[in-house]
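=== Structure Prediction Worksheet ===
Name of assembly: unnamed complex
Input type: mixed (protein and possibly other molecules)
Chain count: two
Listed entries:
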Amino acid sequence: MNVEHPKPFLGAYLDGELSASQVKMVQDHLEHCAACREEVEELKRLSHLLSLSAQPDVVTPADRFAAQVGLQLSRQPLRSVRRPSYKWGWWLIPAGIIAAWVMIQAAAIVINLTGWLGWLGIGGQAVAWLSSPLPQPDWLASTLSLYRSNIPVDPSVIKTLATGEWLGWSMVINFVVLAALGGIYWAWLVLFWQRIDRKVLADMVHEGV
Amino acid sequence: MERNVPSPSPQEALWITHAQAGDSGAFCELVRIYQARVVHMVYRMCGDIHLAEDVAQEAFLRAWQKLPAYQPKSSFRNWIFRIAANLAIDNLRRENGRFESLEEDRQDVGQKKPESLVAEAQIGEQVQNAVLALPSASRMVLVLREYQGLSYQEIASILDIPVGTVMSRLNYARTCLRQSLKDILTIKEDVPDER
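=== Predicted Assembly ===
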C-alpha cells in the first residue's frame, strides 16, 4: 500500500475489506491528509446516491413467478448428474476384477482336473500333454537355490517348488495373481467410499438401484 | 447491508436437499425466496425490469438443470447469483454491451407528486443511467457490492475472478460514477453513516 496517498484502498477501507494493519495505516494517513478525507466523504456520498436509485417493484409477484418457473420445470425433468462413482465405467473395475478371478479359478480347475485325470491315467496323450509340468523359470530356480538353506519349510516343499511341478507352480501363480487382484479391489473400494455421498447411497439403496 | 455469507436456514437446507432429489415443489420454494434479489440484480445490470424477470426466470431454469452438481457446502445464494450474473452479461453482450432503459414511465398522468419526490426520482434515474453506462464487467462488480451488499470474496467467487480484480473494477466503477455524477455529488449533505 502506498502510504503517501492510499487512494486505491479508500473504497475497500469504507467497505471494511482491509486488514487491521491496513485500516490502521489508512486511519493514520487520514488524520493528516485533507485530500484523502475529502475523497472518503465523496465515496460515502456516492454510496448514498446509489442507494437513492430506487428498486423498482417486481412486476410478477413471487408466488406467481415461482409458479411460472414450476410450470417450465415440469417440461424439463431434472437431469441426474451421475457422480463419478456411479458412472458405468467406474463399475467395470470391480466387474473386471471378478471376471479375472473367475477366469483364473476356471483355469486352475481345468489344470487340476487334467492333472488328476493324468494321474488316474484317463484321457490319454491329450490329458498327459495338458498336465505336463510347466517349465521352471530361471529366476525362480536361482531365487530358490539362493534361499534354499534359509527357508524354514519342509525340504519336500522346496523340492516340489524347485522342480516346478504343476501343482506347486500353479499354486504360486494362483496366489500371486489373486493377491494382485485383491489389492486392486481393495484400492477401488477405498476410493469408492471416499467419493460416495453416504446420503445418496442410502437413497440408492432405498430406491433399489 | 449484510457482509457475511448467510448460512441457509434449516428449512432452506431441507428444500435444497429435496430439490436435488428432484422435488420441483421444493425448488419453487427456493425460487420464491430468491426471486426478488435475483431480479433486482439483473435489473441493475440491464435497466429493464421486464427483461430482468425473463433473465431471472432463465437463471432459475438453468439452476434447476445444474442442481445435481451443486455442492451444499457453498452458498446457494451466491451460486444462483453466479448463474444469473453470467446470463445477464451474456444478454448484455448480445445487446452489444449496452442496454438502454426501456422502463415505462410509471408516473400516473394527472397526479402531482411533491417536488422533493420528483427531484429524488430524477436523481435516482440519473444515477441508474450512470450505472448503466459503465462497462459490464465493472457494472456487475458495483451492483453486487453496492446493491447486494456482498463482500469482495463473495463477488470474486461468484464472478470467478481474483479479489484484487474485484477491487480494481470497483475502484474504476466508482471513479467513473464520480465523474459522471459530479454535479450531484458536489452537493454536500448529511449522509447517514451506513458503514
